[in-house]
Every structure is written in C-alpha cells, then in structure tokens.
Amino acid sequence: MDRSPRDLLRGYVEVSSLPLIHLRLEEAINNPKKSMSDIAKIIRDDPGLTARLLRIVNSAFYSFPSRVETISQAVTIVGTQQLSALALATSVMKMFKGMPEDLVNMDSFWRHSIACGLAARQLGTVRREANAERFFVAGMLHDIGRLVMFTKLTEPSREILMVAKTDHKLLYEIERERLGFTHAVVGGVLLQTWKLPTSLEEVVMYHHNPTAAIRFPLETALVHVADIIVHAMDLGNSGEIYVPPLDPEAWERLNLTPSVLASIEEQIDHQYQDALHTMMVDA
Asked: Which of 2, 23, 237, 274 measures 20 to 30 Å from 115, CA to CA?
C-alpha cells in the first residue's frame, strides 16, 4: 500500500490536534513568570479534568496518607510536570470515540493501555528513575497508533486482524508485511505531530524494536518490557493475540533481576482496578 504514516494524519483534525489543555499547561510550566497558582488555575478551568486528576491523586496510584482536596494541593504535592503528564494521558482517552466494535473493544484497549502504564511506572520506580509519571504516559500511549489505523485504514486493519488469527502471527508483523509500517511507527509520528517530548515519540515508535532506539534506549526498553508483562498478565487487549517476544538486550538494559517481577506484578494488581475506576469512569 503506497501510503505513509504521515499521510494517515494529514487533514485528520481529531487526532492531529493535541488537547488544548495540555498545550496551555506546557506553556505555563515552561514560562518562568508563571506560578504554581497559575498552573492550578488552568486545570481548574476544566472541571472534568479537575475531577479526573483529583480522583487519580487520591487513588492507590499514589496512596497518599491524607486526602488531597484541591488542585492547588495536588500541584504542590505531585508536581507540575507530573500533573501535566497525567492530564495528557486522561485527555487522550477522550479523543477516540466510535471505533468499529469488530476491530477493537475500547474498554479492553484502555485496560491494556492503563495496565502497561502502571507496569512502566512501576519498573521506573524500582529503578529509582525520576518523574515516574513519564513512564506511565509512555505506557498509556504505546499502542495509540493502532487507533489511528483502525480509523483511517479500517478495511486493511480488519484484514490484518484476520490474517494474524488464521496464520497465528503477531499483529505488528502482519502490519509491516501488508502496509510497510506498523502501528508503533504511526503512533510515533502522531506524537511528533503533537510536538510532544522526543522521548515519548521514540518510546512509542520503537516499543516492539527497542534496540533501534538511539536517544532514549532505557525508556524504550522499559516500556517494551512493561508491554510484555501486561500481555502475560492478560490485562486488557489492544488487538494482539499473542505475547510479543522479549528482546533480551532490552531486559539487560534495565539491569533488573527476574526476582523483581513478582513484586512488580503485585503492585500492578494492587493499583489496576483503582486506576481503571479513576481513569475510565468518563472516558
């Protein structure tokens, strides 16, 4: 098929325009003249986002000892970059509506995406990485290119799903054979169009091929492993039938022992239902 990932996004306003709230937040965060109060006000201007973020910061996702009552408190306790990342993740969930049911169950898709975000965040926490929310967002968005393909390449996507089932092959392998690119590349181009951080773009683009990541190999390896953990735990589904293979170099890059996997899965189990309740209630 003579079509590129960028062609899929051209003129498609629904997916090629980043939620305005995130743009406003990033602009304020990067403006030294803006205070935490200014940032809190931007969030409060969107009642739906305010409610979602307060639910998240009061959930098992953070397990704070006392209840966070206001966005001003949340900004102070959680941090501006972290809240901006969470705002992006929850806003994107609301952008994709009306997907063909025979192609994707959106409830299951977001369950898988949230679980991958939790796994990535937990892996980052175990490694003592700063700002673990960036891993949550990367995990949340890793398969977003598939939604673009389901929307813009509906019939080819339907055929690809059928071939993957009948031939017992991985979905992204059939995508590459039939289209010349995968949902991972489409997702990376989308995030580039949105002018999101290059780290997010690269993680999404190479999450099935982590050794190809040049600038952010650790972040990409981390989401690659998180995706496989969640597939193995059978938490939701974004279309893939089988558990993708683990890239041994990606695992080595994380410098973790297999013994940590049990505690990571335990933490995912602990946070999963609460995360679904807080993030999917109005998605």
From this structure: 23
- 99 and 38, same structural domain? no
How far apart CA 279 and CA 59 sit, in angstroms, is: 10
Check if the beta carbon of residue 61 is closer than 8 Å to that of residue 274. Answer: yes
Domain, as residue range, for 108? 5-18+95-280
Q: What is the pLDDT of residue 282?
A: 58
Identify whether the C-beta of residue 75 lies closer than 8 Å to the C-beta of residue 29.
no
Which among 37, 60, 94 is the end of a domain? Answer: 94
pLDDT tens-digit series, residues 118-136 = 999 999 999 999 888 889 9
pLDDT tens digits along 206-235 = 999 999 999 999 999 999 999 999 999 999
| 180 Rama sector, left if φ>0, alpha if ψ -120 to 50, beta otherwise | left
Give yes or no: residues 166 and 274 share one domain. Answer: yes
Same domain for 168 and 241, yes or no, is: yes
